[in-house]
Amino acid sequence: MRKRHVPSTLMFLAALVLLAIAAAGIGGVTLYLQNRGQTQARAEAITGGKVANGPALMAGYGCGSCHIIPGITGANGKVGPDLSGISKRTTIAGSLPNDPKTMILWLQHPQALRPGSGMPEMGVTDAAARDIAAYLYARS
């Protein structure tokens, strides 16, 4: 079989294209990680909770048996609302304002805020509610 000669300018151009693709990929990953870090820091600042504690707490309280919760293994319940993108909603529980204070209170005392709601009292502590709220607000 005869070898084809590839001009060096074409090889150089191909290398430049590959380098540009690699730089764009690295830049994209860097921006994603930077944005994710800022979102988590903001969620922790507005709730006073720790994002990292949220998944274990929600698993412990069984939140996923009623809700779909992104990032939580097995959280695919269909009884309550899907919590995907809850940080972008204007209301929770139908008409309550979606702000950190209301979210934390809702997680702790849903029947006090909305008597007769399908959301049961789970005995969620203030610290746990803050961590869960931080996790939910960090998931955009």
Characteristics:
53% helix; 3% strand; 140 residues; elongated; mainly alpha; 2 strands; two-stranded antiparallel ribbon
Note down, in words, how this protein is organized.
This protein is an all-alpha fold and 140 residues long. 53% of the residues lie in helices and 3% in strands. The chain contains 5 helices and 2 strands. Strands 1-2 form a two-stranded antiparallel sheet. Helix 1 (8-47) runs antiparallel to helix 5 (126-138), helix 2 (54-61) packs across helix 5 and helix 3 crosses helix 5. The termini are far apart.
Structural class: mainly alpha
**Largest sheet, order of strands side by side?**
1-2
**Inertia-based shape:** elongated
Oligomer: single chain
Low-confidence stretches: none
Distance between the ends: 56 Å
Radius of gyration: 23 Å
> Main β-sheet, in a few words?
2 strands, antiparallel
SSE string, helices as H and strands as E = HHEEHHH
Count of beta strands = 2
Q: Helix proportion of residues, in percent?
A: 40-55%
Proportion of β residues? under 5%
Query: What integer is the average pLDDT?
Result: 94
Number of helices, counting only DSSP H or I runs of 4 residues or more: 5
